[in-house]
Design the sequence.
C-alpha cells in the first residue's frame, strides 16, 4: 500500500487495534454462556482498542484534534486537523460472536475528510482512501457498482432498535423501496455498509441517527470510488445531521427520490 505519511499511520493504528480486537473476539463465544454475559468484556475491548489507536495517532501527530466514540472530543493545537475514530463499529455483532465489525479512522482537514481507513479485522479487509487518490481494498482499486436498474439493486440500511424515534420513517422507507429493488440488507456496521458500497457489493445505503465517527471514513471511501453521497434531507450536512444516503451514479437519484418521499 502506498499513501501519505498520515494514511500509513492510520493503517498501522487500525491493524494494531484490530489485532487486539480479534484476540478479544475469540473469547466472546465463551463469555456468551456466563451469567454475567459479555457486555462488560466488550466494553473493555472497545476502550482498549481506542486507547491503542489514540496512542498511535496522537503519538505521531500530537497537535491534531481528536473525536472518538469512547473518549469524546479534544481540541488540538492545530485547529485545522482532527482524527475521527470509532474503535469498534458493530459492537452488537461483536457481542454476539458475529464476525462483521470494523475499526474506522478518518482524518478531517478544514472540515473535509481527506484520509480514511475502515479495517475489517475478522476478514483482514483493509478499505482505505485519500482525497483525489481513489479508494482501495487492500491492494486493489475499488469502484462502485455499475448497475443501472433499481430492480437489480441491493441496498443496505440500519433498522433503528429500542425506542429510537426514526423507526417509523425507516419502516416507511422499506415499504417504498423493497418492492422496487432486489433486496435490502441490515448488517449492523455503518462503516462497513459504506465500504461495501465503495466496493460495489451494495448499490446504495441510507441511514439516520448516526454519529460522525460512524460515517466519516466511509463517506470518503464512497466518494473516491466514484459514488454519490448526500444527506437525506436537502441542504443538510451528513456529518452534522447523521442522516446519509449514497449510491452509484445511475441509481442515486431514483434511490434518493424514494427515500426522500
Sequence:
Amino acid at each position: 500500500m502506498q499513501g501519505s505519511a498520515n494514511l500509513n499511520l492510520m493503517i498501522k493504528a487500525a491493524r494494531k487495534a484490530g489485532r487486539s480486537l480479534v484476540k478479544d473476539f475469540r473469547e466472546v463465544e465463551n463469555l456468551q454462556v456466563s451469567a454475567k454475559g459479555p457486555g462488560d468484556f466488550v466494553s473493555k475491548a472497545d476502550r482498549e482498542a481506542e486507547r491503542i489507536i489514540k496512542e498511535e495517532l496522537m503519538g505521531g501527530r500530537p497537535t491534531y484534534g481528536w473525536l472518538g466514540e469512547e473518549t469524546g472530543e479534544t481540541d488540538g493545537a492545530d485547529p485545522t486537523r482532527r482524527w475521527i475514530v470509532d474503535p469498534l463499529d458493530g459492537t452488537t455483532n461483536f457481542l454476539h460472536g458475529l464476525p462483521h465489525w470494523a475499526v474506522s479512522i478518518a482524518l478531517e482537514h478544514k472540515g473535509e475528510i481527506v484520509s480514511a481507513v475502515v479495517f475489517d479485522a475478522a476478514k483482514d479487509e483493509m478499505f482505505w482512501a485519500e482525497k483525489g487518490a481513489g479508494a482501495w481494498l487492500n491492494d486493489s482499486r475499488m469502484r462502485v457498482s455499475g448497475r443501472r436498474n433499481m430492480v437489480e439493486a441491493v441496498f443496505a440500511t440500519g433498522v433503528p432498535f429500542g425506542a429510537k424515534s426514526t423507526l417509523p420513517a425507516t419502516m416507511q422507507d422499506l415499504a417504498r423501496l423493497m418492492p422496487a429493488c432486489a433486496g435490502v440488507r441490515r448488517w449492523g456496521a455503518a462503516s462497513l455498509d459504506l465500504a461495501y458500497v465503495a466496493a460495489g457489493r451494495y448499490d446504495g445505503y441510507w441511514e439516520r441517527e448516526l454519529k460522525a465517527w460512524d460515517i466519516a471514513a466511509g463517506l470518503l471511501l464512497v466518494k473516491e470510488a466514484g459514488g454519490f453521497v448526500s444527506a437525506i434531507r436537502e441542504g443538510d450536512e451528513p456529518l452534522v445531521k447523521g442522516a446519509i444516503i449514497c449510491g452509484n451514479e445511475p441509481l442515486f437519484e431514483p434511490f434518493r427520490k424514494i427515500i426522500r418521499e
Summary: Residues 9 and 57 are 7 Å apart (CA to CA).
